[in-house]
Amino acid sequence: xxxxxxxxxxxxxxxxxxxxxxxxxxxxxxxxxxxxxxxxxxxxxxxxxxxxxxxxxxxxxxxxxxxxxxxxxxxxxxxxxxxxxxxxxxxxxxxxxxxxxxxxxxxxxxxxxxxxxxxxxxxxxxxxxxxxxxxxxxxxxxxxxxxxxxxxxxxxxxxxxxxxxxxxxxxxxxxxxxxxxxxxxxxxxxxxxxxxxxxxxxxxxxxxxxxxxxxxxxxxxxxxxxxxxxxxxxxxxxxxxxxxxxxxxxxxxx
Amino acid sequence: xxxxxxxxxxxxxxxxxxxxxxxxxxxxxxxxxxxxxxxxxxxxxxxxxxxxxxxxxxxxxxxxxxxxxxxxxxxxxxxxxxxxxxxxxxxxxxxxxxxxxxxxxxxxxxxxxxxxxxxxxxxxxxxxxxxxxxxxxxxxxxxxxxxxxxxxxxxxxxxxxxxxxxxxxxxxxxxxxxxxxxxxxxxxxxxxxxxxxxxxxxxxxxxxxxxxxxxxxxxxxxxxxxxxxxxxxxxxxxxxxxxxxxxxxxxxxx
Amino acid sequence: xxxxxxxxxxxxxxxxxxxxxxxxxxxxxxxxxxxxxxxxxxxxxxxxxxxxxxxxxxxxxxxxxxxxxxxxxxxxxxxxxxxxxxxxxxxxxxxxxxxxxxxxxxxxxxxxxxxxxxxxxxxxxxxxxxxxxxxxxxxxxxxxxxxxxxxxxxxxxxxxxxxxxxxxxxxxxxxxxxxxxxxxxxxxxxxxxxxxxxxxxxxxxxxxxxxxxxxxxxxxxxxxxxxxxxxxxxxxxxxxxxxxxxxxxxxxxx
Amino acid sequence: xxxxxxxxxxxxxxxxxxxxxxxxxxxxxxxxxxxxxxxxxxxxxxxxxxxxxxxxxxxxxxxxxxxxxxxxxxxxxxxxxxxxxxxxxxxxxxxxxxxxxxxxxxxxxxxxxxxxxxxxxxxxxxxxxxxxxxxxxxxxxxxxxxxxxxxxxxxxxxxxxxxxxxxxxxxxxxxxxxxxxxxxxxxxxxxxxxxxxxxxxxxxxxxxxxxxxxxxxxxxxxxxxxxxxxxxxxxxxxxxxxxxxxxxxxxxxx
Lengths: 254, 254, 254, 254
Description:
Four copies of one chain form a homotetramer. Helices cover 38% and strands 15% of the residues of chain A. By secondary structure, chain A is of the alpha/beta class. The first copy, chain A, has a single domain, classed as Aldolase class I (TIM Barrel, Alpha-Beta Barrel), CATH 3.20.20.70. In chain A, helix 1 runs parallel beside helix 9, helix 3 (75-89) packs across helix 4 (109-121) and helix 7 (187-195) packs parallel to helix 9 (213-233). Chain A is globular. Chains A and B meet through helix 3, helix 7, helix 8 and helix 9 of A and helix 3, helix 7, helix 8 and helix 9 of B. Chains A, B, C, D: The active site is at 95 (schiff-base intermediate with dxp).
């Protein structure tokens, strides 16, 4: 169990709704994941209507929506989008994504901090997507962020935890939950993120583009549990020399 | 489920019995691991008596013993040890370990192949511990090995899958089960081994030296399941460029 | 040859002056490095006097000083320090370092951007030390930076290019020189930085703490040349499969 | 300077003759590399004639030929090929390559040891190409090998030093020169190999397939020198925490 703002979650696996072949496939995967917090791009939601197709597949009592601002280019657009989302989706939770760069989709630290400050003042529960920047994380805390969401590697790359050294710094210093976002490409990556002490992970592409999204979602679900369990049970240290687990006195000596 | 020789196993996690603080702690961890094949060093077994302390903790109907030859220095000693083990423990299964090097405990390819040939002829089910050497693996197949057990990194180092490129070669070519042995230091390593298609993993040090062996054993148990599930569900490819999981058309454009 | 602002440099190796055992050892290493741009911490310079010991060892016609602001905690302090430096050292070049974090010494993206904007307006040639953040690099360009100095890994860690994926993004997009700073621990790291297309590298700790700083400085000097040469000659691609460099038709077939 | 058998070499860069576009391009690259020991596949040499095209480009007083047995599949073929080579090329030096595997071209440890034993008895100076197997290296020493040539990664892959942990074991234990062979894809890889204490490296593909082989050969030449120099000057240790090279007392405190 872990807490963001004042909300307690049983699952440490957050999921996203992009890139699935169909809404039905998406729904099956989300249910298999056990995820209780699911991001949905504002752009994909019909903010005026009631019967949006995506939303209809997300109406499960254990699932809370986490609208994201993907597509906004600066703090001003982010704040506007957040307000529309709050009204339409009746939630003040927000995954803040500001990535003006069309090629690598890396987040903008300056606009993200600015938007976090404003949105926190406006009463939003802000979860900003950021580079694995330890100082930015501390500044986001000062600005009232509810959590930080540093990336493991580029969005959708499936490259895993390329930023691990910096994630470890962030985790060691953070007073808010650290949720590793972007780049997690396999259950082993998710387990590793949990082993180093992350509070949670967000996975989307690796589930959606796999050969069997529902089964892959289940694999991520249990890998996250395994990683957290290992963190709590404390891993042994890594050594450069070998050390036999079996006795090495010669078999025939005695 | 997977099969070694003609025996079917439900669990793909093999465990070892070394380095635990007590026999009770060991037993609890082995039970938590769900492991059905457990290595025990011949040196530690009282081959003459019936009431050996270690063995008494391994008497569970779902657990088969896999005696290992740790401590032997060449094929001749290995064959002799194997014969003693078969008589005392009433099993013809054998984990063949020949590592004459006292510092890094790396296995000897020449003596291991030689011993495998002889032991297979003598009716043993041989599971040799080896470097991640693709050609050696094929030669062991020709010699009648029941499986191959290439190392991930040095025994007891907890360094993980340093040999991954070679493990992938071995897996792609093998006609016998590939069980990754040595160096697996965390559940994420075990999950990764399964994701690349290993049939099973053997873990000992990482469980025994953790802060809570029984809990760590459970973490490995489910990480192995997660990794296998991901292998079967097929992971997406890794790309160098980012690819958004949320739509990127500008939020306010339309 | 490469250019920062309007100044042409023959050497792509920048060096620092910290951590040497003596000023004489430092001078010998700097001369062996061939470096033409050498950072010196403002804190270590006697800004009032003329006969500062460190400076006396840096008076060589081919060496330009690059004062750094190590120790400042925000943009305001940085601008004040820069103005003192300009007056005392008679240079408007400045390595901007703002790292409020005492443990990991990671740079502050927000204050660094703010200080860069102000200092560029005040006529400084600003070279900011930053995390390997592609979006921040573009914003620094807009703010008038003369170059960007993203880190390879934590200062003084000798861990090498842990941020390589992000450095490649930065290099592919930058309109100003990219100088890899911090973490370069060996000549092979410096060569690698040049191979991926960095314009230059800054090395200090790895030279100063080595067993023989002057010889290590020379090793870095030529490694940087080798890496640049390889970049210009274009490296072959990396492949997953083996490909023999010798013919593989069987020797005895014909 | 380093010594193999009783021969002293000034250059620690060995090169190969495969994959070049033309013999002229090859010759220019070999000269630029400064290499004094150059492998040539027996298959490519006209063993009967005097005016073989490749050989005519290798007739330089500072270059010794190192015939390789690429294409042989076992010890018997290797011995036969070696004897032909000795007669035709008037050298008893031999790079022993036995890789029966057509896909990954990994060397055969068993046949390589067997051939080394026989060839050493026949008076050959044997340099066997092997996996990075520490125990095999010691056995080859016992068999009379003149050097060991463990691989960094698969032949022609340009993947670099994937076996680095095992190379370090080999170097720490070896009584004969260790020459890292196969997989070195960039000057930074060659520098790294030298930094960990290898005696020499062999590079072929990375030079031959580059955009400018002669220039790339020169880059490798100086990278090898840089790496060796760094090894001799002793690199500083790698640490997990940052450590400033500039003083960190706050700039404005005093």
